[in-house]
Amino acid sequence: MRILAFEALRAVDERDAYANLVLPSLLREAEAEATRKGREFDRRDAALATELVYGTLRRQGTYDAVIAACVDRPLREVDPPVLDVLALGAHQLLGTRIPSHAAVSATVELARVVLGDGRSKFVNAVLRRIAAQDLDAWLEQVAPPYDDDPEDHLAVVHSHPRWIVSALWDALGGGRAGIEELLAADNERPEVTLVARPGRSTAQELADSLPPEATVPGRWSPYAVRLAEGGDPSGVDAVREGRAGVQDEGSQLVAAALAAAPLEGPDGLWLDGCAGPGGKAALLAALAAQRGAVLVASEKQPHRARLVARTLAGNPGPYQVIVADGTRPAWAEGSFDRVLVDVPCTGLGALRRRPEARWRRRAEDLPGFAPLQRGLLAQALRAVRIGGVVAYATCSPHPAETRAVVEDVLRDASADWVDARPLLPGVTDLGDGPDIQLWPHLHGTDAMYLALLRRTA
């Protein structure tokens, strides 16, 4: 499984692959190979590979600092495959309960297989230096003191690029405790959360279909069921049949808030203007069907539109999936009663699920998203009728992608804020409103942002 973990890290590094896509594929291949050879595939091995890949990616910044203190050259001069092996070893030594001698010997053997005897000796020497101290001692050595440079200290200790630490701190506000809790939450393994699709299943039915010890109720969403640690959604009948899906509770709340927004007049046609890959669209379509309304799910990319169509298949009411560009709409102005635009963004709110994103994104990426985000919101406000409601959502807490976008568009649009907080009953720590920012450390969700706007003229 260590070889498999190494292959996953190389794919992430060389091909800009996402771990949540490449790792399941590698595990399926390993299971198929075991079956061909008449062996039973050990799920504990799969769990180990998963922990090694995600743990190494999440703590890459910290481990790089430790490795740099143990080698005699700049890290940029160390071959990337060697760095991947060293990071895997560092995670086993500093981030797991694997005994040090086992972590070193297993990683050195991996190095022999994938790097050769010569470089395995280098790996052995570095890992023995790392094994001489625990993580806390290493952090004392490699992280600058908090009082000298708070952001750099937090960046090393919590393994986030400095610019992301700064951006998240600006968005969160407050002192040291809050940002430490947020960064720590980003490094925790996220729960698997299921959504029961109305009209096809309920959260209670979903929970009752599984062993009592396998599920935990959702925190906030009436449609949510959380799987116990290590739960596999592919083994849930309702997921395989499309009656339920895998969806973060924050995403469920965004769809639920739009559906619950008060509306005068007709309420028969809804739009998801950036529908791929289809999670929010599936929940919206189910909620719309309960009221006799129709959802139009629009997606610019044809392959993502096909994903939306598969996700919505079997919805109890009518819906339509179309390929269209939300900035150049294929519909007439004022066509819809409710509109969702979950806009493309940096994804800084989902670093728990996509840990490699923190190392790929750069501060200079932000300006590239801004015109698209503003264009999609402006067109969404034109697509909705007077009196209708638009939900602007994004999986980022960065101020430049959240309230700044809404305020810029509102300068030229005839629309008013709708206070979203009362539409999420029971959800705490929602701030001063009228918009909402969810947080991993406060809500156990991705850091979803939501603004609701009503067109006035």
Could you walk me through the main structural features you see in this protein, from its secondary elements to its overall organization?
- The protein has 457 residues and is an alpha/beta fold.
- It folds into 3 domains: 2-136, NusB-like (N-utilizing Substance Protein B Homolog, Chain A), CATH 1.10.940.10; 193-246, no CATH class; 249-455, 3-Layer(aba) Sandwich (Rossmann fold), CATH 3.40.50.
- The protein contains 20 helices and 12 strands.
- It has helices at 2-15, 19-36, 43-58, 60-68, 80-95, 100-114, 117-130, 135-142, 150-158, 162-172, 176-186, 203-208, 237-240, 249-260, 279-290, 302-312, 357-360, 366-383, 403-410, 440-443; strands at 193-196, 215-217, 224-227, 244-246, 269-272, 294-299, 319-323, 336-342, 384-394, 415-418, 436-437, 449-455.
- The strands form 2 sheets. Strands 5, 6, 7, 8, 9, 10, 11 and 12 form an 8-stranded mixed β-sheet that branches.
- β2 and β3 (224-227) form a beta hairpin.
- α3 (43-58) packs across α5, α10 packs across α11 (176-186) and α14 runs parallel beside α15 (279-290).
- The radius of gyration is 24 Å and the shape is globular.
